[in-house]
Inverse folding.
């Protein structure tokens, strides 16, 4: 019997956080969801740890889009939910997703909350959520979800090195607007805090603008800090 929900988590070198994050997802497994972790070639114990907590955990091609596509292919379900390793779902996420996708929406996302006390990051999350409602474009930090049949029909995530969430949103928008759920996922502030809030904001604006103007996603990914797998 096909599960109602499959949660796909792409990972890379997340040994420090992966156990508590996957532990928080066990409640969804107990309610019938499947959990699939796709490793992009970690150089730590991420994959070994993940195998303790997931229905499936395996090595896939490096690249978030390719990893998520591999996870979706390995676990057909009524609905696919793509979750970053540093993002936490709300308690009733499975019920919320089911309600949305049984209704008029074939895909959607949650509002995002950045786990930080810094006021500037609260502004960032508010802008992210508002922009998503205005444009119908979802980001990976918002835990995108989509009916499996629609995901297959659009060909999954375009396998580009960066902005795969925007590229998929563009494809999905042709089939209808997203469900913009006001319930929030909580995502880590580590990206902003590690590199500096303003520096990260400006970098993301530049990368997003360059992508919309037709820049090569692989080059943009290198500027973002993407590291190809070692031979």
């Amino acid at each position: 019997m096909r599960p109602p929900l499959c949660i796909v988590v792409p990972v890379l070198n997340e040994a420090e956080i992966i156990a508590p994050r996957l532990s928080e997802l066990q409640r969804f497994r107990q309610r019938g969801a499947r959990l699939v972790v796709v490793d992009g070639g970690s150089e730590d114990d991420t994959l070994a740890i993940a195998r303790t907590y997931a229905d499936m955990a395996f090595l896939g091609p490096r690249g978030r889009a390719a990893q998520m596509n591999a996870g979706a292919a390995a676990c057909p379900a009524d609905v696919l939910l793509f979750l970053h390793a540093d993002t936490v779902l709300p308690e009733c996420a499975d019920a919320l997703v089911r309600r949305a996708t049984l209704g008029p929406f074939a895909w959607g996302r949650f509002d995002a909350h950045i786990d930080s006390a810094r006021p500037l990051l609260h502004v960032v999350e508010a802008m992210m959520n508002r922009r998503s409602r205005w444009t119908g474009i979802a980001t990976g930090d918002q835990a995108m979800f989509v009916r499996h049949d629609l995901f297959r029909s659009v060909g999954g995530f375009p396998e580009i090195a960066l902005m795969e969430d925007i590229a998929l949103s563009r494809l999905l928008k042709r089939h209808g607007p997203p469900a913009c759920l006001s319930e929030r996922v909580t995502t880590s502030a580590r990206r902003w805090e590690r590199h500096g809030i303003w520096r990260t904001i400006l970098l993301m604006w530049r990368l997003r603008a360059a992508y919309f103007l037709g820049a090569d996603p692989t080059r943009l990914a290198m500027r973002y800090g993407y590291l190809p797998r070692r031979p």
In short: The chain has a mean pLDDT of 88.
